[in-house]
Amino acid sequence: MLSTKTRIAESFYGSFIDGHMVDEGTNRTFDSINPANGEVITSIQAGGKSEVDDAVASAKAAFPAWRDLPGVEKGRIFLKIAEKIKENTERLVYLESLDNGKTRMDAQFDVMTSARYFEYYAGLADKLAGETIPLGDTHISYTRSEPFGVTAHIVPWNAAFQQAARGVAPALLAGNTAVVKPAEDTSITTIELARIAVEAGLPAGVFNVVTGLGRDAGAALVSHPDVGRVTFTGSVPTGQEIMRASAENLNPLTLELGGKSPNIIFEDAKLEDAIRGAFFAININAGQVCAAGSRLLVHSSVHDQVVDKLVEMNSQIKLGPGTDAASQMGAITTAAQFEKIQEYLEIGRNEGAEVAVGGSRATGENLDAGRFIQPTIFVNVQNSMRIAQEEIFGPVLSVIRFDTEEEAVQIANDTRYGLTAGVWTQNLGRAHRMAARIQAGQVNVNDYFAGGVQAPFGGFKQSGYGREKGVHAVSEYLQTKTVSMKL
């Protein structure tokens, strides 16, 4: 067990600018709250325009040297960052569980995935190249891939550590420098990541973090004239605001804006695998996952069997503080999200859906002081209901019957979102047909969360645009220059 001093590495967390964290002298702070018990974890600096200006200036100053550093050297630094993340796994897992409310298993996955991002992009660091274009014997033409300069990253609260790494690693690999604005509810581990990176040899100013509220620090960052590119993960309304702010500087964007993803179980599926996959797809991180399989489409012939088993599995989930190793589902991270989920539980009942299990706030034992929601399954759901159309972002599953493949496709696509989908079938032809016809950035067959750090990730429709992860993410942070010359 870690000591109290190690558990909470700092009593104050400030913005991380030019290789160091600002001191505790600021009088503009807010508290970081443990969602499992409502207690104050630490104090966070409420940065604003001044801190953003400093961070962007630091990133801009560091850019030329970092851009010109050979790729092989960037890769070596990335590998050292990955190793240092793994060396600090226990502390980082505890801090992420404490700050976010997620279980130690979920936090462990996030920390190890963050290390994997740096390992993966280290392998690409010396392999970026342009192309030659044939123009005949009299001319030669070729392309150069060049970084934008300073990139801005607005990181969500549901997976702060992992998503900071997911955006920063490919941006830095491409030769950019970065300024990250973490969510105010979960700032701690993003600062820890920046500090680890510098300790591993990343030059000061290449990776900066500004803590603060979105309306202050976030707004100042995305509209800053020296920012060349913006990446945001979060809600559709906030994404639209960021688009408007970025339009002033004509900044390109990567937007990942959530989903209402269909998870489709056909009558010929291996039901044991499909049920386990559906359970995992909605309950991971207490449902606070943009790609969660929150709409479960089940063929009528196996509907009751699937629902009965999921109800049994949900009723056995042990809720508790994320820092408790026995906990299988943690708390809801933010107070606003906690209230929103409870509102949707009431909306579902009022719409005529039936609660098969769960359906309310979880209480008792060590849960009363925290933000815990019973894992919930709604049945008799129509796809037109709000609980089937709107992103709840919690452990709330809407089960919808279907009878034909065509009906499944129609229901799956009848949403403004298009992030992820799951298909469970042993029919290879059907699997390919569904993958082609479903409007989503990712379609997983017989395994819901199948993509690793190598697989591009992003949305269709109002789930956003641009791609993160994999080689595709690097291209988001590069701009193409064509050079042509007469011989």
TrEMBL record:
Enzyme class: oxidoreductase
Natural source organism: Corynebacterium comes
Domain Aldehyde dehydrogenase stretches: 25-483
Keywords, alphabetical: Oxidoreductase
CDD domains assigned to the protein according to its UniProt record, in alphabetical order: ALDH_DhaS
One GO molecular-function entry: betaine-aldehyde dehydrogenase (NAD+) activity
EC number: 1.2.1.8
Family: Belongs to the aldehyde dehydrogenase family.
Name of the protein in question: Betaine aldehyde dehydrogenase
